[in-house]
């Protein structure tokens, strides 16, 4: 089977993808720059520069108009060399004791006070549609405290936010940060899911207990967090808001290289931006899908794109597959699953 020959999918998946397709805006002359998605990834620190790049590039390759990375100055200098297509903002700061020699080293409040650091980021929020937080964030306490300030401001705006990687540690530590925030999408892997479960439910996570009912835990955790959307990544991705659960069972690749989850966060973010355009009726789609359903469909679309990217990249590269190979397949995956249309 050639990489382009996609395996047969279940009828349920076909039906859901048809709904996701309704969110995708057509390519119309009347649209202007920025209407179809302004996404920002908050992450990128001294030791981690690849993750925010892969997330932001997935968002851009899928079709958002403007893709930003908000990171530390040291990370910004590196990420800017990866691609001139991304807008990179060196607004985050690491704790002075952990900051790299390339940082200013200043003890001024603008470099050490999370409220001060977050101000310029919060000022950007009205110009953005969606945030992705976590890729390359690391575990530095100043980075986490700054992100908490930004998340509080984003919540006030009911802004869609995709949380991954080390940002999930904030949820473990302070679940109230996202409790009941319906526009949040958490994307834990199996280890991160276990930490979330223990942090929120105060008990160890035992996957064996879900045998015969694979959605049991993700549904329970979503309910415990007040209805946030959770994507439990695995052999099949499970998406739940505590009330309804979708299963993404498309075939993916067999290589589990680091960085594939970053393609997921960026892809979800673009679908969430398109969700906003759908709700604003920027084109004549004639649909009446509601906010909650659209949120789940955006998560499903991002997961489907990522699994198709993984399948295509693995067919081409086999065990040598790397995260950058998924980035190169984003548009092909989109065309395979949704095609293109204009009206």
From TrEMBL:
Query: Which organism encodes this protein?
Result: Microdochium bolleyi
Its BP terms in the Gene Ontology are: metabolite repair; nicotinamide nucleotide metabolic process
Spans annotated as Disordered: 93-114
Q: What is the lineage of its organism?
A: Eukaryota, Fungi, Dikarya, Ascomycota, Pezizomycotina
What is the protein's given name?
Answer: ATP-dependent (S)-NAD(P)H-hydrate dehydratase
The residues the record assigns to binding (6S)-NADPHX are: 136, 189-195, 262
Cite the YjeF C-terminal domain residue spans from the record. 16-337
Which class of enzymes does this protein belong to? Answer: lyase
Q: Which domain of life is it from?
A: Eukaryota
**InterPro entries of this UniProt entry?**
Carbohydrate_kinase_pred_CS, CARKD, Ribokinase-like
Relate the protein's function as given in its record. Answer: Catalyzes the dehydration of the S-form of NAD(P)HX at the expense of ATP, which is converted to ADP. Together with NAD(P)HX epimerase, which catalyzes the epimerization of the S- and R-forms, the enzyme allows the repair of both epimers of NAD(P)HX, a damaged form of NAD(P)H that is a result of enzymatic or heat-dependent hydration.
Against CDD domains, the record matches this protein to: YXKO-related
Record keywords: ATP-binding, Cytoplasm, Kinase, Lyase, NAD, NADP, Nucleotide-binding, Phosphoprotein, Transferase
What is the E.C. number? 4.2.1.93
Q: Where in the cell is it found?
A: Cytoplasm
Q: Bias regions of kind Low complexity — which residues?
A: 95-109
